[in-house]
Amino acid sequence: MTETNLTIAIDGPASSGKSTVAKRIANDLNLIYVDTGAMYRALTYQALKQNVNIKDEKALINLLKNTVITLEKTEDGQSVFVNDEEVTEDIRENNVTNTVSIVAAHPQVRTEMVIRQQKLAENNGVVMDGRDIGTVVLPASDVKVFLVASVKERAERRHKENVSKGIFSDLDQLKKDIAERDYKDTSRDTSPLKQADDAIRIDSTKLSIEEVVEKIKELIDSTLK
Question: How far apart are CA 176 and CA 68, in angstroms?
């Protein structure tokens, strides 16, 4: 095994730092970065834009079949396109954030997304982050990480990110939203958020991004030996 064909799965709850860490790892090791959460957000964005009922699974599947979601590597990580429209920033708006769990809970939606995600990893070394990568999407990953942090810490991170982007942000509401998101993600019937049996749990509450990245690199190094 070499670094070029490594598959690295990073799972964890909302705002635990998965995407930031995964981007760094992918960039440093020259691997493909796949943000699966962005794919669900892209579908949610498209549903809201076209006034599709996000609780109607059949309607969402029909929409998804006619939606091309493209992830393109950039210097900063990844750009997201829906039918050739760049939506990288749009899918991070509060209306998408607050409803994506509903879209992601539909079994048929997850089945189709998993197929697309697995194709992205075919014959490629990847760093893929999400909720069910180590358990469902890439269960044979070489390295599996389950990244967590306290609700308070995650809310503060999301608040700072929103403020920096000029997005209205209420810290107390964010704490409630994140706790509710955790409940939805861990209690859904299809592919709930949970730690894979062979995943390494890293609590990033008191760690910097650099410290988390180094911990994961140590795991990768031990795998390559």
Answer: 33
Position 1 scores a pLDDT of 47
Instruction: List, for residues 10-53, the tens digit of each pLDDT value.
Output: 999 989 999 999 999 999 998 999 999 999 999 999 999 999 99
Q: What is the 3-state secondary structure (H, E, C) of 26-53?
A: HHHHCCEEEEHHHHHHHHHHHHHHCCCC
* pTM passes above 0.85: yes
For residues 95 and 90, what is the distance between their CA atoms, to the nearest angstrom? Answer: 10
Alpha helices in 66-167 (DSSP H): 94-97, 100-104, 107-121, 151-164
CATH number at residue 123: 3.40.50.300
Count of structural domains within the chain: 1
* Residue 188, C-beta contacts closer than 8 angstroms, at least 6 positions apart: 101, 104, 105
